[in-house]
Design goal:
About 65% of the residues lie in helices and about 10% in strands. With about 600 residues, it is α/β, with parallel strands linked by helices. It has two domains: about 1-350, Up-down Bundle (ABC transporter transmembrane region fold), CATH 1.20.1560.10; about 360-445 and about 560-609, Rossmann fold (3-Layer(aba) Sandwich), CATH 3.40.50.300. The strands form two sheets. Strands 6-7-8-3-9-10 form a six-stranded mixed beta sheet, sandwiched between helices. It is a multi-pass membrane protein. It holds the Pfam family ABC_tran. It is found in: Cell membrane. Keywords: ATP-binding, Membrane, Nucleotide-binding, Transmembrane, Transmembrane helix.
């Protein structure tokens, strides 16, 4: 239940709704009992067991006399309204019953009105804070988690927590109060009969609690399976071309079918136990009422210690307990599902963000001298990817990193942007350790263009504006021109307002890459990081993108991670990497003259082309 206590701060902005809900629920519970009790005088009149006698208005001398006082007061007003006319007395009582039931339902509506505002407001805030956490967590978190599982926590588990928490909210206020007020009224009618009822309540509670014991663990398994299920769908949509080209539809159908079959079995098991809660509690309630009919009937017919009208009213009150009892038993099942969901949601919310700005972080607005990478050792898991790596990048220079796949080139880009933090050594910008810099100001100094052109399902303009959100259309078009992209954008039906589809799939690879470059150009950072920006392109697209890159890198400090060596021959320094270490560095001509590793790579690529 600790997780539910963590939800309480989310209620604070809506505490007025919470207070009003509690207030109206108290009135609902009170009038729920009074509306049933109001049947008593009507039955008295119908059975002729007690006639309203006009007399002086009764007075309340003690709280212990409240029941008798209310009864005498009702008789007084009934007699005053009806005189000796029993029909008018009956009409008075019927009007009273209608009024009490109307008030009960008005208070019910008002309670539900405020709980709706409260639960929807909390759901909105919960989703906001979870999304904020998801977007702030480091990239390393998502290398270990399935995206589908994170999506399941955001979409499904948050709703489950909201539903179950407010089931508890109702559970501890509305339904128990209804039962308490009803039991007080039942005590007023017959102490002996009510004590007899109490024998059966613990038995019912024990049976219901036994049924729900395994629900939490099964609910947790359902939510985990839901995460896997969403992951399969997300991966299928993302890799549809590969699946179709390899005729792998049946394999993915099988994986999906296995997942939904597991989900079906777990959901059926939980659903059947949930479905059992309501009929089981109702059956146990009816058994209790059947025993009451026998015992109470004996008091009316044999012992003559209870009026028939009082007994019928008592039975109505006893049945009135069944509805809240059913709601409590059903809510207790929902709570178990909610606890499992809450565990998963708060696992994400309480995840420690290891990459964030220090409290006294340095805010840096410009780049003045150099980037220094000093004696870095870095590993993703156990084995070091970079080993005692050092490099100086002077301002205004273009440094190219080359080497075979797995040599650690892209890791440099990840470390410079602080997607990951180094374990040993340090990276400095103008002599300041990047861990001491404000994270937003660090990333504001850098533009990143990756091999995968990450674009969003929006217009060209809005994709470019990520680089500078207050830019004018003219600035967007200028950035597109520098990126060699305006030539195709101007021919589109809506120009920069054209929607490019999911992940930019309406465009070719070269067009997408040039839009990514335009986005970086508009940001206009002093440091540019190009992570194999042309390696996925055909020769013609590569030439267009290469022109765009050269335009962008003018008068800028650039770190170019390259697979195709033809694209980096103009670099000031080419750094050749192998297994996380620098094996050679120098200009293109210097490295060719050395006849070393770089020369071999150039020769191999020349031969391949």
């Amino acid at each position: 239940m600790n997780n539910y206590r963590k939800i309480i701060p989310f209620i604070k902005p809506y505490k007025s709704n919470a207070v009003m809900n509690i207030f109206y629920n108290i009135l609902y519970a009170l009038f729920s009992s009074l509306s049933m009790l109001s049947l008593f005088p009507m039955l008295n009149i119908l059975f002729g067991e007690e006639k309203p006698v006009a007399s002086t208005k009764p007075e309340l001398h003690s709280i212990t006399e409240l029941g008798g006082y209310l009864k005498d007061l009702l008789n007084y007003y009934a007699a005053k309204f009806a005189g000796e006319d029993q029909t008018r007395a009956l009409l008075f009582v019927i009007i009273l019953i209608i009024a009490l039931f109307l008030l009960k339902n008005i208070f019910n509506y008002l309670a539900m009105y405020h709980i709706t505002l409260l639960r929807n407001g909390v759901l909105k805030d919960f989703r906001n804070i979870l999304y904020k956490k998801i977007i702030e967590l480091p990239v390393s978190f998502y290398s270990e988690k399935r995206k589908g599982d994170v999506m399941a926590r955001m979409l499904g588990d948050v709703g489950e927590v909201q539903a179950s928490f407010f089931a508890i909210f109702e559970l501890i206020i509305r339904e128990p109060l209804t039962i308490i007020f009803t039991i007080i009224t039942m005590f007023y009618i017959s102490v002996k009969l009510t004590l007899f009822v109490f024998i059966f309540i613990p038995i019912s509670g024990l049976i219901i609690s036994r049924i729900g014991k395994s629900l939490k663990s099964k609910s947790e398994r359902v939510q985990q399976e839901s995460g896997f299920f969403i992951s399969v769908v997300e991966e299928t949509l993302g890799g549809l071309k590969v699946i179709k080209s390899y005729n792998a539809e049946n394999k993915f159908k099988s994986v999906f079918d296995d997942s939904v079959t597991r989900l079906l079995k777990l959901s059926n098991s939980i659903g059947n136990k949930n479905n059992l809660a309501s009929p089981m509690s109702e059956f146990l309630g009816i058994v209790t009422i059947a025993v009451l009919l026998w015992y109470g009937g004996h008091m009316v017919l044999i012992e003559k210690t209870l009026l028939g009208s009082a007994f019928i009213t008592y039975m109505a009150l006893a049945y009135n307990i069944l509805t809240p009892a059913k709601a409590i038993s059903k809510a207790s099942y929902n709570v178990k599902s909610g606890l499992a969901a809450a565990d998963r949601v708060f696992t994400v919310l309480e995840e420690v963000n290891t990459i964030e700005s220090k409290e006294d972080a340095v805010f840096k607005e410009g780049f003045e001298d150099r980037i220094s990478i000093k004696n870095i050792n870095f590993r993703y898991e156990e084995e070091n990817v970079l080993k005692d790596f050092s490099l100086e990048v002077p301002k205004g220079k273009t440094i190219a990193l080359v080497g075979q796949s797995g040599s650690g080139k892209s890791t440099i880009a990840n470390l410079l942007t602080r997607f990951y933090d180094v374990q040993e050594g340090q990276i400095e910008i103008d002599g300041v350790n990047i861990k001491d810099l404000d994270l937003h100001s660090l990333r504001a100094l850098m533009g990143l263009v990756t091999q995968d052109s990450i674009l969003f399902n929006d217009t060209i303009k809005n994709n470019i504006l990520l680089g500078k959100q207050n830019a004018t259309d003219e600035e967007v078009i200028d950035a597109l021109k520098i990126a060699n992209a305006y030539e195709f954008v101007k021919d589109l039906p809506l120009g920069i307002e054209t929607n490019i589809g999911d992940s930019g799939n309406k465009l070719s690879g070269g067009q997408k890459q040039r839009l990514s470059i335009a986005r970086a150009v508009l940001k206009n950072p002093p440091i540019m990081i190009l992570d194999e920006a042309t390696s996925a392109l055909d020769t013609e697209s590569e030439k267009l993108v290469q022109v765009a890159l050269e335009n962008m890198m003018q008068n800028r400090t650039s770190i170019v991670i390259a697979h195709r060596l033809s694209t980096i021959q103009k670099a000031d320094v080419i750094v050749v990497m192998q297994k996380g270490k620098i094996v050679e560095q120098g200009s293109h001509d210097e490295l060719i003259a050395k006849q070393g590793t770089y020369n071999k790579l150039v020769t191999m690529q020349s031969f391949e082309s």
